From TrEMBL:
The name this protein goes by in its record: 4-hydroxy-tetrahydrodipicolinate synthase
Subunit-structure text: Homotetramer; dimer of dimers.
UniProt-listed HAMAP family: DapA (MF_00418)
Organism: Streptomyces spirodelae
Residues given in the record as pyruvate binding sites: 54, 210
Length: 299
C-alpha cells in the first residue's frame, strides 16, 4: 500500500530520482537498490523515481526496469511513493513499459517528453494521453526541452490536465515565467526537476522536488521546503544559498556520473556506469569533493 497522497501532492513532496546500482561486472544490483532506497527514505524522501534519466534508463533493459521497480517497491513501497519512468520516444514501447511498471507494483509513472523525434504539440498530447490511458496509475509528465528538443507548451499542459490520471509535471524547462503560467492555468501539481531552481519554483507554486542532489542532501532539501511552507522565506533562502556549491558541483558533468562517484565515497550502493557514460577523471573527482565540501557534504 502506497503512502497517502493528496491532489496537491500526489507523489509526496521530496523525491529523489534514484541511480540504478550495478555490480562490479555491470549487472543489475537489486540488493544495492533496496539498500539505497531504504537509505533515501530514511533520510527524508517520501517518494523515489526509478528508471529515470538518473537511473540510466537508456541503457537498462525492459526486464531490468521491471525487476528494479519490484525490488524498490518491496523495500520501501509502504513508506514512499515509487514512481517508475516509462517514457520513451516510441509511444508503443512506452505503453509496454507503463503496463510492466504497473504490474511490478509502481505507484505512479513518469513520462518524459519524447526525445529526438521533435513531435509537434498534438503529437505530445496524443503520446501522453496514450500512456495515461494504458494503466490505472497516476502520471507525472516530465518537461525537459534541453534533453528532448521540444517543450510542452502551456496550452498543452492545460489540455493534458483534463485527463483524470495526468496529475503532475516535473519541470526542468528552466523558465520561471512559463512555469508560472502553466501552474496557474493547468492545476497540475508542479515539481521542480532542476535542483538549482527548487526554491524559485516553490515561489511560483511548485509543491515539491524530484531531485538528483537528494542522494546526498535530502535533510537539507526537506528543511528548505518546510521553511518555505511555514513562511520563513529568510530561512529557505539561507538553506538554498548554502546548497549552491552542491547544486553546481553535482552538475558540472552528467548528474549520474557525479552522483555515483559521491555515493561510492559515502559507502552507499552505486557501482559502475554503463557506456556511453564514463567515470569522473581524477581532476573532476577532486573538483566534486571540493564543491560538495563547500556545501557541507564531505566525501
Amino acid at each position: 500500500m502506497a503512502p497517502t497522497s493528496t491532489p496537491q501532492t500526489p507523489f509526496g513532496r521530496v523525491l529523489t530520482a534514484m541511480v540504478t546500482p550495478f555490480t562490479a561486472d555491470g549487472a543489475l544490483d537489486l540488493d544495492g537498490a533496496q539498500q539505497l532506497a531504504a537509505h533515501l527514505v530514511d533520510a527524508g524522501n517520501d517518494g523515489l523515481v526509478v528508471n529515470g534519466t538518473t537511473g540510466e534508463s537508456p541503457t537498462t533493459t525492459d526486464a531490468e526496469k521491471a525487476q528494479l521497480v519490484k525490488a524498490v517497491v518491496e523495500a520501501v513501497g509502504d513508506r514512499a511513493h515509487v514512481v517508475a519512468g516509462a517514457g520513451t520516444n516510441d509511444t508503443a514501447h512506452s505503453l509496454e513499459l507503463a503496463r510492466a511498471a504497473e504490474k511490478a507494483g509502481a505507484h505512479g509513472l513518469l513520462a518524459v517528453t519524447p526525445y529526438y523525434s521533435k513531435p509537434p504539440q498534438e503529437g505530445l498530447y496524443q503520446h501522453f494521453t496514450a500512456i495515461a490511458d494504458a494503466t490505472d496509475l497516476p502520471v507525472m509528465l516530465y518537461d525537459i526541452p534541453g534533453r528532448s528538443g521540444v517543450p510542452i507548451n502551456t496550452e498543452t499542459f492545460v489540455r493534458l490536465a483534463e485527463h483524470p490520471r495526468i496529475v503532475a509535471n516535473k519541470d526542468a524547462k528552466g523558465d520561471l515565467g512559463r512555469a508560472s503560467w502553466a501552474v496557474a492555468t493547468s492545476g497540475l501539481a508542479w515539481y521542480s526537476g532542476d535542483d538549482m531552481l527548487n526554491l524559485p519554483l516553490l515561489s511560483v507554486g511548485a509543491v515539491g522536488f524530484v531531485s538528483v542532489v537528494g542522494h546526498v542532501v535530502t535533510p537539507e532539501l526537506r528543511a528548505l521546503l518546510e521553511a518555505h511552507l511555514s513562511g520563513d522565506v529568510a530561512k529557505a533562502t539561507e538553506i538554498h544559498q548554502k546548497l549552491l556549491p552542491v547544486f553546481t558541483g553535482m552538475f558540472r558533468t552528467q548528474g549520474v556520473i557525479t552522483t555515483k562517484a559521491a555515493l561510492a565515497r559515502l559507502g552507499l550502493p552505486s557501482g559502475p556506469l554503463r557506456l556511453p557514460l564514463v567515470e569522473l577523471s581524477p581532476e573532476e573527482l577532486e573538483q566534486l569533493k571540493h564543491d560538495l565540501a563547500h556545501g557541507g557534504v564531505h566525501l
